[in-house]
Records
---
Amino acid sequence: MEGKNIMNKKAQLKVQEMAFVLIAVMIFFALIALFYFSIRISSVQKNAQELFENNAKAITLALSRYPELVWSECSNCIDLDKAIVFKEIGNSSNYAKKWELDYLMIERVYPKSQSRECVLGTYPTCSSLTLINKTSSFGIVSYSFVNLCRYDSQSNQQICELGKIYASGKNVKAGKK
Amino acid sequence: MSIRNKKGIEMSFNWLFAIIVGAVFIFLAIYASTSLIKTERQTIDSEAAQQLESLLNPLETSIEVSAKPRDIIFPSESRVLIGCDDSKINSASLIRVQTSSKLGDKWQDAGLENSVYSKYIFASKINQGKKFSSMIFPLNMPYKVGQIVVFWSDQKCLVNPPEDVKNLFGNTTNNIFVTDLIGRCPSKSQIICFSDSDTSCDVTVDFFNKRVRKANQNLFFEGNLMYGAIFADSDIYECNLRRLNDKRVYLAQLFAHKSQLIETTSLTGCSRNLQPLLLNYASINYNTSRNLALVSEKALELERANDPVTCKLWKEKI
């Protein structure tokens, strides 16, 4: 009888031992899975960010050909009249989603003008025109040089000046929040 | 004897437990690895769809010139699934990629959908192969409305095309074969007839009625939309046309506001006369390509009104 009890206890001990080993193995695999997924998620986020940044770069180069902004007399020219109307009346914020940009700004580089934001009241004596400013924590900003053209009704001629387009792709981490 | 045999098949609890737990572990490991492979493939396909959009960006055309055909080569046989969403808020061309694999199922679910808002992709719904070709055309109605991106993977045979089409595709190897006789078309190629309608023609282009006939359906076109009608499935064509219509209306309103802006500082009023025409043009809508001719007529009217103005609102020509 006593011998049987000892055997039972031994078996119970073995089962407990097995259960502990099993739990330890499960924890070990869970840790490996956690480690793998954290690396994988950060790598996917990095790739997505890179793709959005590449897209932003491509957009800065192609923006001067978009119908909303194109000045058709020369290549790489932006119609500033159209751009200000696009900002003020054309509901440009809706395009933030469509162009997958967090930030888009046109800056007049030369000749220098009064350093202020372009709105209908200050146009054309202004220096920058922010079309999209979706978030304060946007990613890397890429830029490209463009010609900013407009019709000057006083001199009755077209004027083209040197400008820059700044654009930043969608921030993947900020978007997650 | 029999007692011994019974002893022989006895298994200790340890063994039983190890076999059951081991089997569960092996099953879980196989399940996890197949799921991981599936997820990896979907990630790769989703990234490929994004990259495809970036690849199409440098192809944007300048003002009046069509870009030359360009090849996009995938590392393995792939499917590019093209869709179209013409809803007001999410109007976009949709791209999904499915890459083939030698492990497991050859084709699994496609990666995540990539919505391309600024382009109008005219293509078949399913394009399969390793080499894909694309070409971009500007669409002016009468101002630039957008870019027509035609995308294809299967071989096309153009029979008796007009000179300008021949020049555009004639010297390229982008899965396009140009010939004067249907009989010379490579087998399995899609036959596109320009001057005569034969029963073996898959697509017939009727310049007189500005109509492309394919799969017993008529697609009406104006200008460069002809290429869209030839290369796209009919519902993709009609859907993109509705998207282009929305953009045309939006731009007409933008030009009307631009004209008002210039007018405020101008002594002569500049393009003031164009404002009612633009607003009228913005009020015309079409739902199918059948109504395209009416819009085209109005666009010509608008072009004629813009031509003599000193401060032209746009310089593009139809």
---
Amino acid sequence: MLMRSLLTLAWSSLGSRRFVALLTVACIGLGSAVLIVVEQIRMEAREAFTRSVSGVDLIVGPRGGSVELLMGVVFRTGTPGRGMTFESYRQIAALPGVTWALPVSFGDSHHGYPVMGTDASYFKHFRYGRSQPLAFAAGSPFSDIFDAVIGAEVAERLGYQLNQQIALEHGLEAAMDAEHSHQDKPFRIVGILQRTGTAVDRTVHVSLAGIEAMHADWLDGRPPDAFDKLSAEEARLVVKAPERISAMLVALDQRAAALFMQARLGNWPAEPLSAVMPGPALLELWEIVGVAENVLRGMSWCVITVVLVGMLTVLWSGLEGRRHEMAVLRAVGARPRHIFLLIIGEALLLTLGGVVVGILLAASTLSALDSTLVQRYGLSLSAAFTGSTIVPLFAGMLAAGLLAGLLPAMRCYRRALSDGLSPETGG
Amino acid sequence: MLEGPSGSGKSTLLQLLGGVLLPQRGDVRILGQSWSALSAAQRDLRRADHVGFIFQQFNLVPYLSALENVLLPCRFSVPRRQAAESGGGLVDEARRLLAALGLGAKDIQLRRAARLSVGQQQRVAAARALIGRPSLVLADEPTSALDADNRDAFLELLFSEARSANTAIVLVSHDANLRPHFERHLTLEGGLC
């Protein structure tokens, strides 16, 4: 009963200082929104990293940084680089101890989504998350040269159906001109994959032969002039096995052999290659991201601190003007602890309002960010907007708010003990 | 009535009576209970239960309505709430007191205290001091902000309500014109301290 009337009192008191109260709530809201968004992206990024590839023991590509290789193959973000020969791929795939090997070839795109050339057995072998295989929402793997299988994000975002014809573009950015478009050799969608929450969702998968056919009339990465142009049917006839691919995925009979195999491929006699174990490489990458992430996290806590100090200032500076209000409350029977609770209650209401605003703000920011992040990195945010992030944050913020309210409340409490009741002293 | 020039210690005496200040020597007893024998917390409690205050001005919590201001003592004192409830509902009692003091209009009762005139504020303060029938009401120059007509009307209403609630009133003023309203009066000469 008494607690309720004190909260009502605190509510009315804040209502009388509506402008300052709303500003404070807005500040706390912004601060906690920053915190929630950063936290959510951090957790999702880690989740996406760990679930992006599974069952692949080695990623083999041209010699260079393991991070670039990983980014290119797993997240499909990097430029293809010079790649490796198809001959090396064939020899490595035939090595004893290799369970399966998949060639991957990048360099084209479709409305900003990467096109990946690979083998049809990709859909059988590739695993993500906890060894989950890829599943088809509709259709089947590609069989013809000009067949394409698209990820869930591509299908949803571009509104594609089975059997629809699509034109691919040369390069990783959307084509600027018709010359760099492969529109003369359209692909037919034969399969749509179910959502995986990884980069697969935003990939257009075609066969290696399809990649070759697209570029059959190209020379040294240059588009053909009008006389040399080949139609799709002509390209079909001249297409041959690729000379180069971007990289390959390797699964071994025994995981323990990965280190040995890595060393062996690192000394590949035909050309300089490097092999990356996705697990350790992901960790390495995560550590790089982790630094930035911790900085971000630290900054968002700084923001929260500043905001709470701001609230403390507001409460504190308000006290002087409220002396006579406090004296009146004392005169009608409020004990010093009631005054204390009143101030704490105000801090609590401000923080609570702020955190609720913050959660709403964060939710809308995240859903706005979501589409971009899914499209670029296969990160899905809003789906996992869960209690595990919010609850500790909520509790932490409220505790911090209480702490910030403690100081002015203590001051009022002391003054209530020592001051007389006459409001004229403060009037 | 306590009378005397400024600085004669009227207000100090009132604070002694209310247990806000404690005497350095001697003893102040209200209803047979000495303030000095009680701890600060006990004094707070006893004051909340038995004493109502009316000040010269700034009596009300500005952001609460007149009605909510009247109800405040009942939030902090169980005996006063029970006493107020015994005559009907809590809110009804507050409305009755306000009406008896000439503030019967609903829109005035629900108006925020900061938007009432000084005369209205003092009557709200009187209703608040009287709610829950405290044994004693201590009033420190409650009429000095009012003109003569308002002053007499205010005192009459205050007394008639106090009589029916069986509440004693100790009023401090330097205004000798108030004398006829009171059964007893004391004059303080010179400083007490």
